[in-house]
Amino acid sequence: MMKHLILTSLILGSAMALSAQNALDALIQEARDDHAHLSRTNDPYAGLKAAVQEDYPYLQDLYQHYHLHPELSFHEKETSGRMASELQQLGFEVTEKVGGYGVVGVLRNGEGPTVLVRADMDALPIVEDTGLPYASTVTTKDDAGNEVGVMHACGHDVHMTVWTGAARQLAERKDQWSGTLVFIGQPAEERGGGAKAMLADGLYERFPKPDYAIALHVNAGMEAGKVGCRSGYSLANVDMMDITVYGQGGHGAYPHTTKDPVLLASRIVVALQTVVSRELSPLEPAVVTVGSIHGGTKGNVIPNEVGLELTLRSYTDEVRAAIIEKINRICKGVALSAGLEESQYPKVELRDEFTPATYNDPELANRVQQVFVKALGKDRTLDVEPVMGGEDFGRYGRTEEEVPIFMFWLGTVAKEQMAAAERGQLQLPSLHNSGFAPDPEPTITTGVVAMTAAVLNLLQ
Ligand code: ZN
Ligand code: ZN
Fold first, then answer.
1. Which chain residues have CB less than 5 Å from ligand 2, an ion?
2. Which of 22, 238, 273, 424 has the fewest CB atoms below 10 angstroms from its CB?
């Protein structure tokens, strides 16, 4: 009996303790909910985030449409048509065929600054290998007449979708900003020609001149849901160069009767390594890469010439000019040392595909980064290092108008994939890889929130 009583009171006691614990848990939860509610309502971007989420089904369809219908540089006919009609539906005044297939949409909304938002539209000659249900199966003939696959392997489909999403939000919220929007769809970024062509076709004369220009680029090594910012130089000057090394061909068994261009080209490749390592300041970023060397047909035939293809990277105009001058000097020097006549010195040709460095205006970059911190949080707004890759967005800041520009990075990698990559279990496909597959929802919604928040801030 006694035993039974003790047991009963023990059970009762623990039941009471349990209910007290439950009540406490409930109180804590209530407090948490209150706090969450409070911080939700204190988030000035809560409305924007909810609206973007609500618009996502539309944007997902649009993204899959662009992804399924990629077009090569200078051939963005259907893509630009769709971009134009998206803006027309929102009340933008739209002009097509600006610098090729460029699209310019203007939305005026009272006094205030003009903000240009740019998305590039072209895809790459790559056979898609992502296995996605909406993978591209498009094939076409490239400008050289080769049959190629076509894929949005640089994420320009994400750029166009985010651009449209931001235009939709801004058109909805005309009561929250004052000024002028200039939304541009740019062709031929991958060939370095689109920005140049749009500017040459009067982008800053025929349309309102921007006080700021913003763009984003997807990042294949950053988690979806995050953005990356960099002030100052962010992407490099890009040059492509061809060098033809001449000699006098002949029989491989009688080398003394020839001038061997294979040996000369080899010497040039080795000597070019000293441009960056010995001739430029170690504090100035630069790259000289010989990516292609072609010559000869047979082991016992010394050819007449060898071709080299190079890419050159730098940040400043001075370093760029110095690299080109040093390469010319080294090529001449090697030919001279081999006893070639001046008429047989190597031909050094810079291709007309120069892409200038992207210099993010520090004041604009810092201002927009602060907006991202407020809209997305500090943990989702990363400081990133500059890279030696290139983008022709830099051109919009290099005209005599000196428009401050800012390009930020948009993360694309699914959370699980990022974690696996960090554990060393997965090699993430880079941009321009046939397996590049962004995680669409967090990538696109984050992009639209970030871009819209930035423009709203600039048009306050
Ligand atoms: Zn690219
Ligand atoms: Zn790109």
1. 154
2. 424
Secondary structure of residue 140 in the 3-state scheme: strand
Please state which CATH number belongs to domain 237-350.
3.30.70.360
Catalytic residue list: 122, 189
Give 190 Cα–ligand 1 centroid separation in angstroms.
5
State the Cα–Cα distance between residues 421 and 222, nearest whole angstrom: 11
Beta bridge partner(s), residue 313: 238, 287
Residue indicated by tokens 């027309």: 88
Joined together, the tokens standing for residue 18 give 């349990």
Q: How confident is the model at residue 450 (pLDDT cuts 50, 70, 90)?
A: very high
**Which ligand is nearest the CA of 157, by number?**
2
**Class of CATH domain 46-235+357-458:** alpha beta
3-state SS class at 87: helix
The Cα angle at residue 311 between residues 310 and 313, in degrees rounded to 5: 145
Residue 244 φ/ψ, nearest 5 degrees: -105, 120
Sheet holding 347-350, edge to edge: 286-295, 305-314, 237-246, 347-350
Q: Where are the domains of the chain?
A: 46-235+357-458, 237-350
Which pLDDT belongs to residue 27? 59
| Mean pLDDT along residues 420-443 | 97
* Buried-exposed string 409-426: b where 16+ CB fall within 10 A, e elsewhere: bbbbbbeebbeeeeeeee
